[in-house]
Amino acid sequence: MTDRYAVIGNPIAQSKSPLIHGLYAQATGQDIDYGKIEGPLGPGGFAQAVDAFRAEGGRGLNITAPFKLDAFAYATERSQRAELAGAANAMTFDGERVVADNFDGVGLVRDVTRNLAVPMTGRRVLVLGAGGAARGALLPFLAERPAELVIANRDVDKARELARIGAAEGGSVAACGYADLAGQRFDLVFNATSASLRAERPPVPAGVFAASALAYELAYGKGLTPFLRLARESGVERIADGVGMLAEQAAEAFLWWRGVRPDTADVIRTLTVPLV
Ligand code: NDP
Fold first, then answer.
1. Residue 276 domain flag
2. What total of structural domains would you count in the chain?
3. How far apart, in whole angstroms, are the C-alpha atoms of residue 273 and residue 271?
4. Is 101 annotated as belonging to a binding site?
5. Which residues span the domain enclosing 42?
6. Measuring CA to CA, how many Å separate 79 from each of 83, 199, 222?
7. Residue 259 known to bind ligand
8. What is the pLDDT of residues 28-38, one digit of tens each?
């Protein structure tokens, strides 16, 4: 029997996950059916939708905004990554067991270090934003042993909270506001704010990009976002958006569910929107 999977979010029409998992299934010869579910936004709506999917025999879900915290709460078991992120982007069902994981951070690191071939070890890394995506990236980033990891956020308390989590895991993370970035330069700068989704830019000083820096926009499919434009205008040659992160986190979930890791190159090529 064909195993059923889906992505749940709200809105969900824009999701590329069915296309991505369909291509992975084709390439690996896996017999799966992957759909999309618009989760109801009211109280209990997420749990009801997941209950129904499980009752129909669903094997696993990807979770996108705004349900990553609900998925974390729904699970009966959570990976350490999900625990530390406080959020889940994938679940698998096995009878009464619901196991949650979070592949966003590992997907991002894989895209940067393998696909883009930009090492993080020994480099100065700046993360803009302290929401769910930054949280998920925290430990995978620390595992790469950067020389420095700085998290800047408008609400500095949220950045401090991530710095505390990092310290509790034995890593060194500095938290600051945007004004504190003046005069500092970084080798890798990640825009993990949601500003680009509204065609806005976090108030980052143009001088934060070191010569030969990588500027990475976590949002995808938006072309040259205001953040990437600033990077380019500052002379940065290496810019990327989050399409590779999307493809890599999906590949990690696919591996987790099916035991085979699909190659991501074709999916990245298919989904890439030129950065102009
Ligand atoms: P959250 O809503 O959890 O966090 C939003 C963050 O953005 C907060 O730190 C907030 O700061 C900051 N922010 C919002 N607007 C601005 C602004 N105008 N200026 C400065 N800071 C701002 O979002 P997520 O962490 O879930 O998502 C962040 C980004 O990552 C999105 O673009 C999303 O599309 C992308 N993403 C990409 C994925 C991929 O696979 N490529 C996967 C997951 C996310 P404050 O706390 O001060 O309000």
1. no
2. 2
3. 6
4. no
5. 3-102+244-271
6. 6, 34, 31
7. no
8. 999 999 999 99
Work out which ligand 1 atom sits closest to the CA atom of 129.
9
Residues 231 and 133 in one domain: yes
Q: Per-residue pLDDT averaged across 75-82, rounded?
A: 95
110 in the same domain as 219: yes
Whether residue 122 is found in the same domain as residue 208: yes
Shared-domain flag, residues 48 and 172: no
Q: What residues are labeled active site?
A: 68
Identify the H or E element spanning 82.
helix 80-85
Average pLDDT across the chain, whole number: 96
Distance separating alpha carbons of residues 251 and 107, to the nearest angstrom: 8
Q: Atom of ligand 1 at shortest distance to CA of 178? A: 20
Amino acid 41: pLDDT? 97
Residues with CB under 6 A from ligand 1: 65, 104, 129-134, 153-155, 158, 192-197, 200, 202, 218-220, 242, 245-246, 249
Q: Note whether ipTM > 0.95 here.
A: yes
Other C-beta atoms closer than 10 Å to the C-beta of 11 total 11
Q: Please give the average per-residue pLDDT across 134-151, as a whole number.
A: 96
Asked if 253 and 90 count as a contact pair (C-beta separation under 8 A), the reply is yes
Q: Is 107 annotated as a binding residue?
A: no
Determine the pLDDT at residue 110: 98
Q: Give the domain CATH number at 138.
A: 3.40.50.720
**Which pLDDT tens digit goes with each residue over 222-241?**
999 999 999 999 999 999 99
How much distance in Å is there from the Cα of 32 to the middle of ligand 1? 31
Q: Please give the average per-residue pLDDT across 84-99, as a whole number.
A: 95
Q: Are residues 20 and 141 in the same domain?
A: no
**259 CA from centroid of ligand 1 (Å):** 31
User: Same domain, yes or no, for 98 and 171?
Assistant: no
Q: How far is the CA of 75 from the centre of ligand 1 (A)?
A: 24
